[in-house]
Design a protein that fits this description.
about 475 residues; alpha+beta; 6-stranded antiparallel barrel; 5-stranded mixed beta sheet; about 15% helix
Length: about 475
C-alpha cells in the first residue's frame, strides 16, 4: 500500500465547499418536529485503517520515466464491534489516511465499478497469501524460490495493482516478482462476492396502523439479531416478520416490518441488524474521507451491521429517503419513496421533483471525483435527512498540479477526524439527522449553482408497489 500527498488543506476545504454543498435540497412541509434517532448504516463491516503490517518493496514505473520505490503488501483494519481485516490496495495513486474509517461497499460503489479485470483480482486474492498461508505450497505452484510472508504479500499486491490500476509496477525481490507474474498470468474472472450484510430497502414509510415494509435481509451469516431502537419500543412500534409476530433474529431472505399501531402520533424510528461472521474475500472497502480504496484479503470473525429507518403519518405525503454512490454516473443516487396519499414534492438546487403517492423516484446528483458533498432534504412533520461523504470512484494518477508529489511507502500520519467513535454512517454516504448548519449549506449551494450555471440531474422512475421501497 502506498500514499500520495496530493493537495494541501486549503484545496481540500475548497473541494468540500464547491462540490459538496452544491447539492443542497429542501422539501416544504409542516407539522410537529420528528426526530430521526438512527445513524443509518448501508450494511456490512465498518473498520478503521491501521498500518502497513506485512510488506516488502516494489517499484512503480511512472509515465514521466522516473521510478519510485514503495512499500507493497497487506494492511490491517480493526472492525467496529470486534474483528480484524487484512486488505490490499486497489487505488495506487490516491492518498491514505491512517485511522481512516472504511465501510464495506459493492464493487459498483468503488473504483472497480468499470474495471473488466475486477474478477481476476478476486481470483488472485483467493489463490495467494494470506488465503494460501502455506508458503511452500504457494512457492511450488508459482515456481519461485523461498517466499516469506513479506515477499508473498508484496508479490500479491503487485499482481493486484496490475489489474486494479493497470500500473507498470514490479516487485523488488526476485521471488516476489515471479509470484506476481504467475498470479497475473493465471488469474481467471470470478464473480463479485456477496455482501456480508445489507438491508433492502434501508428506508420505508407508510401510514400509522399499517405494517411498514418489507425490508429484505441479505447476509452470508447464519443468523442476525434484530433490535428496534429504544424509541420504537417506547412508542409501541414493533418489528415483526411476515406472520406479524415480533422478531429478535432473522436470516438471509427474511423480511422485516415495522408494525405501527393505529393512532400512533406521526414520527419515525429505526431498527438495527447485527451478526458475527467472516467477511467474504474480495469485498471492497471505501473510505468516508479521501483515502485509498481497499479490497479484502482475509477476515477474522467480525461484527457486521446495518440499519433501516421508518417514517409514518396519518395522512399527506410520507417520504422514505435513502442514498448510495453511483460510480457509473459519477454521482450519488437519492431515492425518494412516497407511501402517503398526497404527492411528495422536493427541490434540489432549483430543480423541482414530485413523487406521486405510492411511487418512487431516484435522482442522481453529479459529484466531482475525489470531492466531498453534503446536502439536506426536508419533508413534512419536521422530517429531515442529511447525506454527506466523498465520491471516490476512479484510480486516476496525479494531475499536473500534483507533479511534485510522489508516492510514499507508508500512509499519511495525519489522523482523520471523527473516527474515534462508532460508525458515522454507510461508506461514503454518512447520513444524519438535522443539522444547525443546514440553512447555511442551502444558502451557499444556491449561490454556487447560480455561479456555475446549475446542476444536471438524471431521473429514473421506479416501479409502483404497495410496499414502501
Amino acid at each position: 500500500m502506498i500514499s500520495v500527498h496530493r493537495r494541501g488543506a486549503a484545496r481540500l476545504a475548497v473541494a468540500v465547499l464547491a462540490s459538496g454543498l452544491v447539492a443542497a435540497g429542501a422539501i416544504a412541509g409542516a407539522g410537529p418536529a420528528v426526530a430521526d434517532d438512527a445513524v443509518p448504516n448501508q450494511g456490512g463491516a465498518t473498520a478503521t485503517l491501521g498500518g502497513l503490517k506485512t510488506a516488502d518493496q516494489a517499484v512503480i514505473h511512472q509515465e514521466d520515466g522516473e521510478d519510485q520505490q514503495v512499500g507493497a503488501g497487506l494492511f490491517e483494519m480493526t472492525v467496529d464491534g470486534g474483528g480484524t481485516l487484512q486488505t490490499y490496495c486497489i487505488d495506487i495513486h490516491n492518498p491514505t489516511q491512517r485511522q481512516a474509517q472504511y465501510q464495506e461497499v459493492p464493487w459498483s460503489a468503488s473504483s472497480l465499478h468499470d474495471n473488466a479485470d475486477a474478477g481476476k483480482i478476486r481470483w488472485i486474492l483467493q489463490n495467494s497469501y494470506p488465503q494460501v498461508n502455506d508458503l511452500s505450497k504457494l512457492a511450488q505452484a508459482a515456481d519461485t524460490g523461498t517466499l516469506t510472508e513479506k515477499t508473498a504479500a508484496a508479490g500479491t499486491q503487485v499482481a493486484i495493482w496490475r489489474y486494479s490500476d493497470h500500473a507498470q509496477v514490479d516487485a523488488v525481490d526476485p521471488e516476489a516478482e515471479k509470484l506476481a507474474d504467475y498470479l497475473e498470468k493465471n488469474a481467471k474472472d470470478l464473480e463479485e462476492p456477496r455482501a456480508s450484510l445489507t438491508l433492502d430497502p434501508p428506508a420505508v414509510s407508510g401510514k400509522s396502523g399499517d405494517r411498514l415494509g418489507p425490508i429484505g435481509v441479505n447476509t452470508d451469516a447464519e443468523t442476525v439479531t434484530v433490535t428496534p431502537s429504544p424509541a420504537a419500543a417506547a412508542g409501541g412500534v414493533k418489528v415483526v416478520g411476515k406472520d406479524g409476530r415480533p422478531v429478535t433474529s432473522a436470516k438471509n431472505g427474511s423480511e422485516l416490518f415495522f408494525d405501527v399501531p393505529s393512532g400512533t402520533p406521526d414520527g419515525s424510528t429505526s431498527l438495527t441488524v447485527q451478526a458475527t461472521t467472516t467477511v467474504p474475500v474480495g469485498r471492497a472497502f471505501s473510505s468516508q474521507t479521501k483515502s485509498q480504496t481497499q479490497i479484502l484479503a482475509g477476515s477474522s470473525e467480525s461484527t457486521v451491521s446495518a440499519t433501516a429507518t421508518a417514517n409514518w403519518a396519518k395522512k399527506g405525503a410520507i417520504p422514505a429517503l435513502s442514498a448510495e454512490k453511483n460510480c457509473a454516473k459519477g454521482g450519488v443516487d437519492i431515492t425518494a419513496a412516497n407511501q402517503g396519499d398526497e404527492p411528495f414534492t422536493f427541490e434540489l438546487a432549483g430543480a423541482k421533483h414530485t413523487v406521486e403517492a405510492g411511487k418512487s423516484e431516484t435522482v442522481t446528483i453529479p459529484v466531482k471525483e475525489d470531492q466531498a458533498y453534503d446536502f439536506t432534504i426536508k419533508g413534512p412533520n419536521g422530517f429531515e435527512k442529511t447525506f454527506s461523504g466523498v465520491l471516490d470512484c476512479k484510480t486516476a494518477g496525479p494531475t499536473p498540479d500534483d507533479a511534485t508529489d510522489k508516492p510514499s511507502s507508508e500512509p499519511s500520519p495525519a489522523t482523520v477526524g471523527g473516527t474515534t467513535g462508532g460508525s458515522t454512517g454507510g461508506g461514503d454516504l454518512a447520513e444524519t439527522g438535522s443539522s444547525d448548519a443546514t440553512p447555511m449549506i442551502a444558502g451557499i449551494a444556491i449561490a454556487l449553482v447560480a455561479i456555475g450555471g446549475g446542476t444536471v440531474f438524471f431521473l429514473r422512475k421506479k416501479k409502483t408497489s404497495g410496499a414502501a421501497e
